[in-house]
Amino acid sequence: MDLTPIKKLVEYFRDQMKKDPDMASAVAAIRTLLEFLKRDKGETILGLRESLTSATDCLTGVDSSVAVSSGGELFLRFISLTSLEHQDLSRCKKVMEERGELFLEKISMSRTKVAKLCHTFIKDGAKILTHSYSRVVLRVLEKAAAEKKRFSVYVTESQPDAAGQHMAEALRKLNVPVTVVLDAAVGYVLEKVDLVIVGAEGVVESGGIINKIGTYQMALCSKAHNKPFYVVAESFKFVRLYPLNQQDVPDKFKYKADTLKTAKNLSEEHPIIDYTPPSLITLLFTDLGVLTPSAVSDELIKLYL
Amino acid sequence: MLSLIVSEGKDLTKEEKQRLRKEKKQQKKIKEKKDDKASQENEKEKKPVTSAAPASQPPTQPTPTKTKAELKAERRARQEAERASKQTKKGETGQQAATSKPKAPPSDLQPVVKRLPEHIQVDNPDVLKKLAKKLERQQIPLRSDYGYKVSLFSHLHQYSRKAPLTQQLSIPSTVIHPAIVRLGLQYSHGIVAGSNARSVALLHAFKQVIRDYTTPQNEELSRDLVNKLKPYISFLNQCRPLSASMGNAIKYIKKEISNIPSNCKEDEAKNKLLNCIESYINEKIILAGVAIAKCAIEKQKISDGDVILVYGCSSLVNHILCKAFEKNRKFRVIVVDSRPRLEGKEALRRLVQKGISCTYVLISAVSYILPEVSKVFLGAHALLANGYVMSRVGTSQIALVAKAFNVPVLVCCETYKFCDRVQTDSFVSNELDDPDDLIVTRKGTTPLEGWENESSLGLLNLVYDVTPPDFVDLVITELGMIPCTSVPVVLRVKNVDQ
Fold first, then answer.
1. pLDDT-flagged residues of chain B (< 50)
2. What is the pLDDT of residues A168-191, one digit of tens each?
3. Does B410 touch chain A (CB under 8 A)?
4. A207/chain B closest Cα distance in angstroms
C-alpha cells in the first residue's frame, strides 16, 4: 500500500528532471515533495512530517547528491514553521502548501540573484578557470557575457563523466572563447588565469564545500598561486554536515545512488565528490549575499536554530 | 579647582563625572613621569585645558561638538606628552597608563568606560592601593605576592601555596561563611581543580550560604544578599583567580537574586534561588555534557579505528570517550601529559578503569606520536569572543603541531564557558602558579633549591594559554558543532535570549 505512492513520487521526480534539464536536482526534489504534500491523505501533522521525511529519504535513494537531501530538509523546516498555529488539519495543510509554493518561488529566483552578485567580480579581459559542469556558473558567465564583458574560460574535462565537455559546448553557444584542459593540467594552467569560479553540490557548516572530485586540488593549487577561489551556490544547498577531512564525508554522498545499491565493496569504488575546506575558499556567492566562509555558519545558525 | 568640582559631585552630569575621572587618571600619569621635565611642561598645558573643560560646560547646554573639540585638544596634548616621554618610558607601567588613556576619549562619548581589570595591573601601585582599600573595607586579608616575577609577567599575581590566605584570617571568621573559607582553601591548594569542578563547587557553596542566610531587619533580600556575596567573591579571588566559567555562574546568580520580587517571603525566595542554582548546574553542566557526548558520537566524530589524542585531564573529554567506549566504538587513546601538574595521570587512570587502551607520553614527545594520531580532542577553560580558546598551558602547542601534521583538532566546550572577553596572546591575562612547584628532586639532588637567592633567576609556572582559531577545526557545544569563528554568534544569540 505504501509502495505505490513512493513509486509515483520517484516517477514524478524523474519526469521533472527530464522536463527541465536546466533545473537543479534539489528544486525538482522540492517540487516533488510539494506534490506529495498535496496528494497526501494523512490525518495527523506528525504523520505528515514522517511521510515527508521518508519521501525525502527515498528521493536521495534515486539521486544521492547532497543538494537533494539538504533541499528536502530545508523544505520541511520552512513549511513546518507555522504548522502549530491552526487547529484544523486541512487548513494547516493549505498553509503548508502555500508556504511550499513560496519557498519554490524563492529558490527558483536564487540562481538569478547569485548571477547578479557574481558577474561584477569578472573584470574585462579576465581569464577564468572552472571545474566540470555547473549550471550556476553557466548562469553567472551568461550574465557577464550579457554585460558585454570580454573573458575567456578554461574548463577541466572532469572525468569520469567528461562533464567538462558539456560545459564547453554550452559556453561556445554563448560565443565565449573556451579551452578544455585535462584534470591533471590544473597546476599548469593556473599561472595564466586570473580567478577560479566553481559551483557546489553542498555547502557545509564549516564554510567548506562538497563538489565534483577535483575541486579540492584546484582549490589547493589556486591557494598556492594566490589566485582567488570563488564558489557560487544557492542557499538551499547549505547542509548540516561538518566533515573534518575527506574521509569524514558520509558514504551516501560520495558515490552515485546506483553504486551504493549494487556495489559489494565500497572501498573499491571511486568517489565522485570531494570536500574543500573553508581555508582555501575566498568568497561564496549565494542568494543570501556575498559571504566569507566563516559567515556560512552564522547563516546556518539563523536558518536552523 | 579639583576640590571645588568634587564638592558639587551630585550636581554633575555623566559627562562631567567622566571628565573628572579622566582628570584623576591624567594626574596619576603625570605623577609617574615626575622625572621628565618635558612632561611637566605639558602638564601646565593640560591643566588649563582640562580645568577649562568642566568650567566651560554648563549642564544645560547640549554641547556634543564642544566635547569633541575639548577631547581633540586633550588628545593632542597627551600624544605630545607620550612622544616626549618615550625615551624614559618604564616598560609596562608607562605602557599601561598610556593604553588606558587612549581608551578613555572614545569611551567618553559612550555611557560605559571600560577599564583594565585590576588583577592584570599588579605592577601599578595605585591599583594595588585601591585593591588594598577595598579588601580592608570588606575585612578580607590581602594576600602578598611571593618570589621574583619574570618581567614579562610582572603585571600578574604570583602566590605561594605555603602561605594560604586562611592563615591571616581569624577562625571562626565572622565575615566569611565557613563553606566559602573551606572552598577557598580547596582552590588554593589545588584540591578542587578543573573548570567544571570549580564552578560546581562554587555553586554548591553558594547554596549553603543561601540556606544559612537570614535577611536582617529593614533590608531587602535581593539587595542585601548580593552585598553579602561580594566579600566572598573577593576572598575566593584572593585564594585563586576566578575562572571565566565561575564568573558567568556568579553573574547568573546575582541576576537571579536581584530579580527576586520584594514582596516574596524569605523562605520562598531562598527555595527559588536554590532551585535556580540546581537547575543551572543540571542544565549548563551535566546535561550539556551529555548532549555534547551524544553529538560527538552520533555525528561520527569518533569512528572505529580512530586514534585519539587528549591532553591533560578534561572532565568533558573523558566523559565523551567513556560514553563512546560504552557504545562499542573501537578506538585507542594517547594521553599527553606535562609537568608540573601531571594531570594526565588522572585522565589515564579514569580511561584505563573503563577498559580503554591508552598510551601515555609527555608533551615533548608529541611530534613523535602525532603521525599515528587521527584526531585531537581538547578541553577548554573558556572560549573568548574572538574565537580564541583559553585552555591549560600546552594546549596551543599541541594544536600547532597537530595543524602542521594536518590532524583535525576538536575542542569540546559547554556554552556557559563562553565569555565576552577578547584576547590575542597569553601574556595579557593569565595566572601564575606557585613557582616552587617547578622544583623537583631527582637522584637525591634538588638543582633549583635556592632559586630565590639567585638574583637573575626567575621561575615561571604559567597555568593558561590561548590558542588561535586557525588551529581549531571544530568546536562541539551543546548547541551543535560550530567553527571556532562562530563563538560571537552564539554569544549574541544567548544575549538575545536573556
1. 1-10, 43, 45-64, 91-108
2. 999 999 999 999 999 999 999 999
3. yes
4. 9
What is the chain A residue with the closest CA to B471?
A279
C-beta separation of B189 from B236 below 8 A:
no
Contacts for B154 with CB less than 8 Å, ≥ 6 apart: B92, B122, B123
Q: For every residue of chain A, which 3-state class applies, written as one string?
A: CCHHHHHHHHHHHHHHHHHCCCCCHHHHHHHHHHHHHHHCCCCCHHHHHHHHHHHHHHHHHHCCCHHHHHHHHHHHHHHHCCCCCCCCHHHHHHHHHHHHHHHHHHHHHHHHHHHHHHHHHCCCCEEEEEECCCHHHHHHHHHHHHCCCCEEEEEECCCCCCHHHHHHHHHHHCCCCEEEECHHHHHHHCCCCCEEEECCCEECCCCCEEEECCHHHHHHHHHHCCCCEEEECCHHHECCCCCCCHHHCCHHHHCCHHHHHHCCCHHHCCCCEEEECHHHCCEEEECCEEECHHHHHHHHHHHHC
A229-250 average pLDDT score = 90
d(CA A229, CA B307): 33
- Record: contact A244-B301, CB cut-off 8 A: yes
Closest C-alpha among B305, B472, B482 to residue A247: B305
Burial track A267-285 (b if 16+ CB lie within 10 A, e otherwise): eebeebbbbbbbebbbbbb
Nearest CB partner across the interface for A301, out of B410, B470, B489: B489
d(CA B29, CA A74): 59
Q: Which three cell numbers stand for residue A72?
A: 528536502
Q: Is A251 on the interface with B (CB under 8 A)?
A: no
Q: Is the pTM of this model over 0.80?
A: no
Q: Hey, are the CB atoms on A245 and B470 less than 8 Å from each other?
A: no
